[in-house]
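Need a sequence for this fold. Nothing fancy.
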């Protein structure tokens, strides 16, 4: 049994980092993507979005697509390539996809883009499966 989108969204809002950063969780067909409007609180001393914000957003989005496969996961490794700086007032979207859906590990990629599909960051991560997301008796 896989979780439905509402269960995933409810879980997302129990994760305080999503609400702390002001990330919006949006359902789309059978998936979910994350959006964030970059505000001053997200920027670094160069007045661009802090890399940690982009990394956190991508890691969270990839974890959510793993959860949607009824797998509870933790991040084993993650790498990010910053392509362009994200400026203040830019709305960005984390678009995750599963590359490998194994019994013990999952591999995902995530693009951080804007509404025009301009690429700001490319992320690759490996996750360790620690159990089922929705536990059944």
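Here you go.
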């Amino acid at each position: 049994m896989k979780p439905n989108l509402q269960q995933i969204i409810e879980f997302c809002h129990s994760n305080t980092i999503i609400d702390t950063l002001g990330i919006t969780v949006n359902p789309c067909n059978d998936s979910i993507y994350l959006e964030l409007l970059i505000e001053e609180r997200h920027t670094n001393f160069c007045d661009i979005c802090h890399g940690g914000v982009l990394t956190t957003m991508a890691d969270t989005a990839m974890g959510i697509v793993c959860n949607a496969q009824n797998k509870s996961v933790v991040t084993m490794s993650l790498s990010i390539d910053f392509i362009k700086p994200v400026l203040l007032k830019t709305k960005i979207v984390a678009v995750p996809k599963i590359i490998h859906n194994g019994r013990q590990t999952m591999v995902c990629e995530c693009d951080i883009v804007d509404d025009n599909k301009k690429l700001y960051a490319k992320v690759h991560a490996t996750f360790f499966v620690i159990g089922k997301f929705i536990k059944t008796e």
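For context: The beta strands are 24-28, 31-37, 72-82, 91-101, 105-114, 119-131.
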